[in-house]
Amino acid sequence: MKDPFEVLGVERDSTKREIKAAYRKLAKEFHPDLHPDNAELAERFKEITAAYETLSNDSLRKRYGEARARGTWGAGFAFGESDREPEFDEMFGAGDRDTDLHGDIAGNRRGRGGTSMWMAGENLFHEITVSFLEAARGTRKEIKLPTSVTLDVEIPPATDDGAILSFPGWGFPGYGGGAPGNLNLQVKVAPHPVLKRQGADIVMTLALDARRAANGTIVTVPTLAGEQKLRVRKGAKDGDVLHIKGGGLRLTPDGQRGDQHVILSVAPARV
74: domain CATH number? Predict the structure, then answer.
């Protein structure tokens, strides 16, 4: 068997994640289901699969290192189902027990039922931008995915900027009947010109001239539910806060909401 690190094109200190990424890339390129009549590529895929089985399993990777240090790598050794990492069987069928690393891995992996080899699909990462009010209230959006699928997704109320929503089964398709991956949708929230979010509360600053603050007045402010009138008491000072009870976000299952806070910014009186 060839050096598994060279087969996968990874460094000897590569992490499992790096090894898995290298393997997935090569497996998609050389998978026999994609090249049913190419014996040369089928042999290449066997090498790739055997290399991944070796390096993705801590026990086998250790045994490979020991065999290489002794100069006996390539003499052949067998491994059974207990040696494989569960992660491998998540991507491929469990296959037959006691598969030999130097055997026909692609063929043996066809399993007891004679079905073709399968591999789970990759997760798909996608982004969507919604307005501040849409994220706060919740909304539905139609999105076009790189897989050419159009999907109607629900953005729940109080979705925060950068939140990732997962939709199982809407990722890239699998190979050979493997399950599709998931759609991981990151939500970008466009800023509002006035309103800002602080946890479950909504905060804004309201500019007010000194005369209106001194005499008291009625002001109109934006809220999640639309515009609302508030009374400013006489003698209001810079930094005073008006409160709208329940004007914030709904974050709890029982429907409790945060509040909206309107911070007054009173301009100094002209002399």
Answer: 1.10.287.110
